[in-house]
Amino acid sequence: MSPIITAQELASILKNENLVLIDARSGPNGSTKYEQEHLAGALHVDLDKDLADIKPDAAQGGRHPLPEPEKFAELLGRLGIAHGSHVVVYDDMSGANAASRFWWVLRASGHTQVQVLDGGYQAAIAAGIPVSSGEEHPKQAEPYPFKAWELPTISMEEVAKAAKDPNYLVVDVRDAARYRGETEPIDLVAGHIPGATNIPFQQNLAADGTFLSPEVLREKYEAVLDGRDMDHVAVHCGSGVTACHTALAMDYAGLGIPTLYVGSWSEWSRNDRPIGTGA
User: Fold this and answer.
1) Active-site residue 244, yes or no?
2) Which one from 237, 249, 257, 262 is the annotated catalytic residue?
3) pLDDT tens figures, 160-174
4) CATH number of the domain at 156-268, out of 3.60.15.10, 1.20.1090.10, 3.40.50.2300, 3.40.250.10?
5) Predicted TM-score (pTM) of this structure
């Protein structure tokens, strides 16, 4: 199953009994947007509450550490997601807000039938997919049966070694100004992990906010991978959320899913680690 689904493809499967639609619009107004209007039947997940286990100190795991597997398994049960479910998730920022994070965490749970809506909520509206408001009532299911994340992650100590190793590629997906240390709107220190390569996640997208074709993405990333296997590639961002967008793009390109540095810059920059600046 492709990790990406178009609005037209979604429209053709809306009546499928095993379809579970997930609205992952987040931020301070995410739940309000959902309550006011969402794709009919969609269930809302919150980045901070459902897709992360936020700690008092971001130095320990970054701003959006992964939730405990047991907690996420319970969430999937409340959402009615079972082994046979076909899950489609969307946000309103071309997948970068939280839809790609939900895709990654669900894949890491062992569930392969999950897709991100190309173009997000805007594309669905343009395609005439019905909307609703208020609360939706999911079909309850048992907690999803998994006990440990099945996709690879990398620790701060491991990424420090990888960034110095020419056999590895560490990709920073934040925008170029943040990478160069010219600005930092969220974390305490500006700059980047020394040795990391900057490929802003926006480069995964066409001008209309949809993903570039798998062929174009494959050519783009193969040029940077330079023959490295995917188990020698790690991606990160500010807090392990938008990095999932590039993991999604790589998988869409047929390259596989890279290792995720969940703590990302929010953890690295709070632990007296070396700071790189400039290009």
Assistant:
1) no
2) 237
3) 999 999 999 999 999
4) 3.40.250.10
5) 0.97
